[in-house]
Amino acid sequence: MAKKNNFLDGYQTYDTNSGYGNAESWKGAFKQRMSKEDAALHFTANAQTPHEVLGLQKGASKSDIKKAFRTLIRQWHPDVNQHRLAEAEAMSKKIIAAYTLLS
User: Which of 53, 84, 89, 103 could form a disulfide with 98 if both were Cys (CB 3.0 to 4.6 A apart)?
Assistant: First the structure.
C-alpha cells in the first residue's frame, strides 16, 4: 500500500515549535522580504505587468488580487516544487512582487 501524503509534508522546513505566530507578525515578515521599491525594480526589468503575472484584469478588486496571489503562491511555492527549485523561486518572487505592488 502506498504511503499517503500528509498535507504538511511540503512545509517541514519551518520550525513551528513555538507556534505559528499571529497575523501581524506574518504581515511584518512579508513586508521585510520585499518592499514596494524592490517590487517596482523587479518589474522594470520584466516585460510582464503585475496584473499579467497574477492573471488579472486592470481594476481588479482587492479580494480578487488576494485570491489570485494565494492561488499562485500555493502553486509555485519552492517547498512544493522541490523538483524545479530555481523556476519556483523565480516565479514566487514575481508573484510576491506583483502582489506587493497591487495591494
Answer: 53
Among 97, 89, 94, 99, which Cα is nearest to 39's? Answer: 97
What is the pLDDT at residue 35? Answer: 76
Residue 97 pLDDT more than 50?
A: yes
- Which phi and psi angles does 60 have, rounded to 5°? -65, 150
Cβ contact 73:92 at 8 Å = yes
Task: Tell me the residue ranges of DSSP E strands in the chain.
Answer: none
Nearest CA-CA partner of 74 in 14, 6, 5, 10: 10
In a domain, 10, yes or no: no
Cell of 73: 503562491
Q: Check which CATH number belongs to the domain holding 45 and give it.
A: 1.10.287.110
89 located within any domain = yes
Is there a domain that residue 73 lies in? Answer: yes
If one compares 44 and 81, the residue with the highest pLDDT of the two is 81
